[in-house]
């Protein structure tokens, strides 16, 4: 059985209103750490925070007002259960929660990145939260922090600060990922900050911690998008990251892979695709060969277009393209690739500037055929005359990958003007700005959660599509989840995290 880890973390992109989804599907570590002499055994996947046996969903609301502090931010944990996601309650976690270190302050943006992962190996997920605007005494304003909050049957377990930005404006916590990158059975944390990626690694069978810089380089004053998977086919997870700059100080765009170097006790760069920028990354086995593949969402060229075409033909980038780099059994990752967009035969819609097709990505095996399928959000998609109403598209994989031997795709569209989907498509709803997948009701079939941060005058909402179907779909909004007021749930559904 092939062991895989998925992690897609959110990072603010160039425009002030554009965001990406934060999605995480991570493996629980083994109860006892294994030596690095062999790949670790397959283990269960969990995002169960409250120990009820059901996958849960974390929704970060970093722009929310908490205790009068604007943009202090919070995270809403929505419980899965037999009746479906959100129909069993949930809790709100902020820096005013007793077990969480710190206090809510204006501009902290607690919840800018969220992740549910079992770091301790007890079968219970921890909540990992980035607060890139956190001021840290002795380090300066906006140093940023990453907090880990323990799961519990009721409320929350103890919380602690896992990583802190080294200086002012470091903005640690813009993106996060967790996986066993060192291959010893423990969970390691990767954190994106302003122009920097750092890692906290468990080494020596979990007896020691190493904090190391993975990469420090101009990234346009932002953090990169992160994902994890076994791209080298050696049984140990690797790190993927994507970032770009425009005239800051020069224009560049990269997707890079990193693997743990045990001798140096740091991550080593193993693969690069230059001149390609991506707003989202997702990992899955899209061709069913048992190897991890990497999907680049809203892939486009930023730098000199004459260098190469890492996102496929330039025409595919219109409106946002999705580019897939496939795994190779001999470790030659990226030897084969595919590209598609909304002009590809079989894909819903028409490629138009501003659609942002692939701005968020999630992975699931929708039809249980042993190949992963892809859900792609397009928050800029116009529905009729309503600009940026947004859509999400299910892309079904074929034997050769996301497109078949003829270069055609199979897709199913979802938007709020489709019969059975609650609500109505309205200008700037941004339906599809975030997507996440999980079997939230344990019926053996995957469900999809779709965020629409612009819904209801930007109070936002999350739409639950059982098995990515309109049958039985429903909406979760701040009001029906019992949040105190729309103003304290600004852009609810902007980021999500889930199994």
Description of the structure:
Helix content is about 0%, strand content about 35%. By secondary structure, it is an all-beta fold. The strands form eight sheets. The protein has a four-stranded antiparallel sheet, with no helix packed on it. Strand 22 and strand 23 (about 375-380) form a beta hairpin. The longest helix has 4 residues, at about 455-460. The protein is globular, with a radius of gyration of 20 Å. The two termini are about 20 Å apart.
Set down the secondary structure blueprint.
Blueprint: E1 6-8, E2 23-25, E3 57-61, E4 74-78, E5 90-93, E6 113-117, E7 126-131, E8 145-149, E9 159-164, E10 175-179, E11 188-193, E12 196-203, E13 208-216, E14 225-229, E15 238-245, E16 252-261, E17 266-274, E18 280-284, E19 293-299, E20 321-325, E21 337-340, E22 360-364, E23 373-378, E24 391-396, E25 410-414, E26 434-438, E27 447-452, H1 455-458, E28 461-465, E29 474-476, E30 495-498
Which features would summarize this protein structure in a list?
four-stranded antiparallel β-sheet, FG-GAP, disordered N terminus, 499 residues, hydrolase, Int_alpha_beta-p, signal, mainly beta
Order of adjacent strands in the largest pleated sheet: 5-4-3-30
Q: What does the radius of gyration come to?
A: 20 Å
Mean pLDDT: 86
State the end-to-end distance: 19 Å
DSSP helix fraction: under 10%
Q: How many helical stretches?
A: 1
**Which class best fits the helix and strand makeup?**
mainly beta
Low-confidence stretches: 1-45
Strand content is 25-35%
Strand tally is: 30
What's the shape? globular
Task: Give a quick account of the main beta sheet: strands, pairing sense, barrel closure.
Answer: 4 strands, antiparallel
């Amino acid at each position: 059985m092939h062991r895989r880890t998925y992690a897609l973390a959110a990072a603010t992109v160039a425009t002030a209103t554009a965001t990406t989804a934060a999605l995480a599907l991570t493996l629980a570590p083994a109860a006892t750490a294994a030596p690095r002499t062999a790949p670790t055994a397959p283990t269960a996947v969990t995002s169960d925070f409250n120990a009820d046996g059901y996958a849960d969903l974390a929704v970060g609301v970093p722009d929310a007002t908490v205790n009068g502090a604007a943009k202090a931010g919070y995270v809403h944990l929505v419980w899965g259960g037999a009746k479906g996601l959100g129909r069993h309650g949930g809790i709100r976690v902020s820096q005013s929660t007793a077990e969480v270190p710190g206090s809510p302050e204006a501009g902290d943006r607690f919840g800018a990145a969220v992740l549910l992962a079992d770091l301790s190996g007890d079968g219970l997920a921890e909540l990992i939260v980035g607060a890139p605007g956190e001021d840290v005494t002795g380090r300066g304003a906006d140093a940023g922090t990453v907090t880990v909050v323990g799961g519990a049957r009721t409320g929350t377990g103890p919380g602690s600060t896992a990583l802190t930005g080294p200086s002012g404006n470091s903005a640690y916590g813009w993106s996060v990922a967790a996986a066993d990158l060192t291959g010893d059975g423990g969970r390691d944390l990767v954190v994106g900050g302003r122009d920097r990626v750092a890692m906290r690694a468990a080494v020596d069978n979990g007896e020691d911690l190493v904090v190391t810089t993975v990469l420090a380089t101009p990234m346009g004053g932002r953090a990169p998008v992160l994902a994890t998977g076994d791209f080298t086919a050696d049984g140990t997870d690797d790190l993927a990251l994507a970032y770009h700059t425009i005239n800051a100080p020069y224009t560049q765009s990269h997707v890079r892979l990193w693997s743990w170097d045990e001798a140096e006790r740091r991550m080593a760069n193993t693969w690069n695709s230059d001149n390609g920028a991506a707003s989202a990354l997702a990992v899955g086995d899209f061709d069913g060969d048992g190897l991890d593949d990497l999907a680049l969402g809203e892939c486009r060229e930023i730098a000199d277009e004459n260098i190469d075409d890492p996102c496929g033909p330039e025409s595919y980038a219109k409106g946002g393209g999705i580019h897939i780099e496939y795994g190779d059994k001999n470790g030659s990752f990226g030897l084969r690739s595919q590209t598609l967009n909304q002009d590809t035969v079989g894909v819903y819609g028409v490629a138009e500037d501003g659609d942002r097709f692939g701005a968020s990505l999630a992975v699931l095996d929708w039809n249980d055929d042993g190949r992963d399928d892809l859900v792609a959000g397009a928050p800029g998609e116009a529905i009729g005359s309503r600009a940026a109403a947004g859509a999400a598209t299910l892309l079904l994989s074929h034997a050769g990958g996301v497109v078949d031997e003829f270069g055609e795709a199979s897709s199913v569209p979802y938007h709020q003007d489709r019969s059975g989907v609650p609500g109505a498509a309205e200008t700037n709803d941004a339906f599809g700005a975030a997507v996440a997948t999980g079997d939230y009701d344990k019926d053996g079939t995957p469900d999809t959660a779709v965020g629409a941060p612009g819904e209801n005058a930007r109070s936002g909402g999350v739409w639950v599509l059982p098995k990515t179907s309109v049958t039985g779909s429903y909406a979760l909004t701040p009001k029906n989840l019992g949040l105190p007021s729309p103003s304290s749930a600004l852009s609810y559904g902007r980021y999500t995290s889930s199994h």
